[in-house]
Amino acid sequence: MSDQNCLFCKIVSGQIPATIIEKNDRVTAFNDITPQAPIHVLIIPNQHFTTMAQVAENDLKLVGEIIEMADKLAKQLGVQSYRTNINTGADAGQSVFHAHLHLLGGRAFAWPPG
Ligand code: AMP
Ligand code: ZN
Fold first, then answer.
1. Which residues are in the CB-under-5-Å shell of ion ligand 2?
2. How far is CA 58 from CA 1, 13, 43, 50, 78, in A?
């Protein structure tokens, strides 16, 4: 199911262009348009969910598939250390309300986050 007003649904359907890194029938990975690291890939369910928590509620296996794809892509892109990030809600920095996992790599990251 998709939401016709959703930016990431439009990327999944090809209505809006993106640099797709990998896609299967359940998950799509594409480059973030404003990269925060040399590697910054967004990994999303093809189906529309507003948050990753909603993905977990509806299809727990899909959460695993998203994390599995992040790890596979990190290895393919040649990074041993990487950061994955899920922003849930506006105060946490979520700006696109189609669930996504950020995969960031290619530089060192500070902790705690800002
Ligand atoms: P978040 O702030 O966690 O919701 O992350 C949304 C991410 O989507 C941000 O890092 C944006 O840079 C990214 N983004 C917004 N529009 C696009 C687009 N058209 N193609 C690729 N990434 C996008
Ligand atoms: Zn969507």
1. 3, 6, 8-9, 48, 98
2. 13, 21, 17, 12, 32
How high is the pLDDT of residue 1? 85
The predicted-structure confidence for 94-110, as pLDDT tens digits, reads as follows 999 999 999 999 999 99
Right CATH for 7-105 from 3.30.428.10, 3.40.50.1980, 3.30.930.10, 3.40.50.10490 = 3.30.428.10
Q: Give the whole-angstrom CA distance, residue 4 versus residue 10.
A: 7
Residue 80 CA to ligand 2 center (angstroms) comes to: 30
Closest ligand 1 atom number to CA of residue 94: 4
pTM given for the model: 0.98
